[in-house]
Write a structure and sequence with these properties.
Layout (H helix, E strand, L loop, with lengths): L1 E4 L13 E3 L39 E4 L4 E5 L4 E12 L2 E11 L13 E9 L3 H10 L1 H4 L9 E4 L3 E5 L2 E11 L11 E13 L1 E12 L8 H7 L3 E2 L2 E2 L2 E2 L1
Parallel strand pairs: 2-7
Antiparallel strand pairs: 1-5, 3-4, 4-13, 5-6, 6-7, 7-12, 8-10, 9-10, 10-11, 11-12, 14-15
Length: about 240
């Protein structure tokens, strides 16, 4: 089930707000820890997300995140940079901040519905490779329903590339046979994740974009490639965050 909070009151970074520790495998008997791994000495942290970046109508909208990275959403998307959104299935939750969405409330019967959703979170106590794989496996929660058969999930091989010289790993998950609670819910979708170096709040940042497929006004998957290509280190100058 998808949910969202448009505006989150400032709090210290924690698991709920967008920094999570590495979780053990779902098959591991080890209980998950809720205590974040310590950050390196001198590593910058921030309690507040950067302010929303205002641009002229028709221009791509940058979203600066608390992880020292910025990404762009298209001009016709909704910028909810100070909010959080996520999914809950069977007692498990997946949460992202620095949100952008498209087609918000396209499905009147489904609260908080959106044809596309993007966001970023942080990870500690893990590697970029493992963070990317763990985030990709969150598709089980994103597209699952505890009262229905699980969807069919197809995982890509990891794609290794660099973001301004920093290592990055991407996975694409294609979901089919998603349980529909409403007729306007998707039967298929994609979920792309990218893990890379974080420069504040968490040493690893994870970007995601979820796209409904097979519905009127659904976006082509190429928008995921385009948005991932905009991820960059945040820059603060006299004009503000970029």
């Amino acid at each position: 089930m998808l949910w969202g909070i448009p505006k989150l009151a400032p709090e210290a970074p924690g698991r709920y707000e967008g920094v999570s520790v590495a979780e053990p495998s779902k098959t591991s008997p080890q209980a998950p820890t809720t205590t974040p791994a310590p950050l390196p000495s001198g590593f910058p942290t921030t309690e507040y997300p950067p302010p929303k970046i205002i641009v002229p109508d028709g221009e791509p909208q940058p979203i600066a995140t608390k992880f020292g990275l910025t990404y762009d959403i298209p001009a016709d998307w909704r910028n909810v940079s100070g909010g959080v959104a996520g999914w809950t299935t069977g007692g498990e939750s997946v949460v992202y901040g620095a949100i952008g969405d498209y087609g918000y409330k396209y499905c009147p019967e489904s609260d908080g519905s959106a044809l596309a959703l993007s966001g970023m979170t942080g990870r500690t106590g893990t590697t970029i490779d493992d963070a990317a794989l763990s985030a990709a496996r969150d598709a089980e929660v994103v597209f699952g329903n505890s009262d229905a058969a699980p969807p069919r999930l197809q995982y890509s091989q990891p794609y290794y590339f660099k973001i301004q010289g920093e290592p990055a790993v991407r996975y694409t998950v294609r979901a089919e046979n998603i349980h529909r609670q409403e007729n306007c819910d998707p039967h298929q979708a994609t979920f792309d994740v990218v893990a890379t170096t974080g420069f504040a709040t968490a040493p690893i940042a994870v970007f995601m974009i979820e796209l409904h497929q097979g519905l009127p006004d659904a976006l082509n998957h190429s928008i995921a490639d385009a948005m991932i290509s905009t991820i960059r280190r945040s820059d603060f100058n006299s004009g503000g965050w970029r």
